[in-house]
From TrEMBL:
It comes from the Bacteria. This is Uncharacterized protein. Residues 300-321 have a biased composition (Basic and acidic residues). It comes from Streptomyces kanamyceticus. Residues 1-27, 298-321 are annotated as: Disordered.
Length: 321
């Protein structure tokens, strides 16, 4: 499926870049979080006064117009500027230009005082290779996961390329407590039937599985990391990954290049309901996946029956947390 989409994108970029006329470069062209497009273009004084200007965002027969404001400058030609809000076409809950999966042309349309209409695209140069930074050059929409990028066609024209997200289990936050770890998350571009699915912890080395109960509220979910069952699956320190249904759990909708390095988390000791002690490290991997490393610290002779855990006093619980 991804190869078919890549082939379609190449064909659409080639079609969008057709035309041999030189394209003026914008003074400014940027995109933030796949949602906010900022454009500034110098008005050509040789073509007369501009009575009205629009930025056209088009794909096939679909066309959306964003007004361009004329802003005089102290030095040089006046600027035509606009800030456009973009959104996934499937997300009808907010305003903005609805972009479907594909390549969208950017065209500046001006109308003179005598009614003459002129249209031209925007030209951009090849981006130079930059040294790695803590953040990636493009960030997906944090709500829908759709990634919109400004890309250059072979002819040098600037276009928008919108790529919808695959179904993901997005971790919103995790909260360590005295007796365990609670994870809050949501489904993004969820596949049918994903909401309501059970979770599981999978031991990384050998694939041992521990079921995880998931509480659902529409597309949002909460789960408790089953530390007792994970440490009880075998001696030693192990790393566990998590899945909600068939979806790996992690922080995917981010422009952080290396979440493991950017979001370090400490090891903690947790007091389990059966009287055991577990040292656990909830963390992100370099790819953004959520994982927990845990080790049982309990002397087997000190472990109590789970049915007796309510007899522990608050003072003893404080001492072991």
């Amino acid at each position: 499926m991804s190869s078919l989409r890549s082939t379609r994108f190449r064909a659409e970029r080639a079609a969008a870049g057709r035309g041999g006329d030189p394209l003026p470069a914008p003074v400014h062209l940027s995109l933030r979080d796949s949602r906010t497009l900022n454009v500034a273009v110098a008005a050509d004084p040789a073509r007369g006064d501009v009575a009205r200007a629009r930025l056209l965002i088009t794909r096939g027969l679909r066309r959306y117009a964003v007004p361009l404001a004329l802003k005089p400058q102290a030095h040089g030609a006046p600027l035509l500027t606009a800030t456009a809000t973009l959104r996934d076409a499937r997300d009808g809950g907010r305003p903005g230009v609805p972009l479907s999966d594909g390549v969208w042309r950017l065209t500046v349309e001006t109308r003179g005082a005598r009614g003459r209409v002129r249209r031209h695209g925007l030209g951009i140069e090849r981006a130079p290779a930059l040294p790695p930074t803590p953040t990636l050059p493009h960030a997906p929409d944090p709500r829908t996961g759709t990634l919109v990028r400004i890309v250059r066609t072979r002819g040098g024209r600037a276009v928008l390329q919108a790529t919808r997200s695959l179904p993901r289990a997005e971790l919103v936050r995790f909260v360590p407590g005295g007796d365990g770890i609670t994870v809050h998350g949501r489904l993004v571009a969820g596949a049918p039937g994903s909401a309501g699915a059970r979770g599981r912890a999978v031991r990384r080395r050998d694939g041992v599985v521990v079921p995880v109960e998931v509480d659902w509220r529409a597309d949002e979910f909460t789960l408790r990391v089953p530390l007792a069952e994970m440490t009880g699956a075998g001696p030693g320190q192990w790393v566990w990954d998590f899945r909600v249904g068939e979806l790996p759990l992690g922080r995917w909708l981010s422009d952080v290049r290396d979440p493991a390095a950017s979001c370090p988390t400490p090891f903690r000791v947790f007091a389990l309901p059966d009287g055991g002690l577990t040292r656990a490290h909830a963390h992100f991997t370099a790819s953004g996946a959520f994982a927990v490393t845990c080790l049982d610290l309990t002397d087997p002779t000190d472990r109590t029956n789970p049915a007796d855990h309510t007899q522990r006093t608050p003072e003893s619980a404080k001492e072991t947390s």
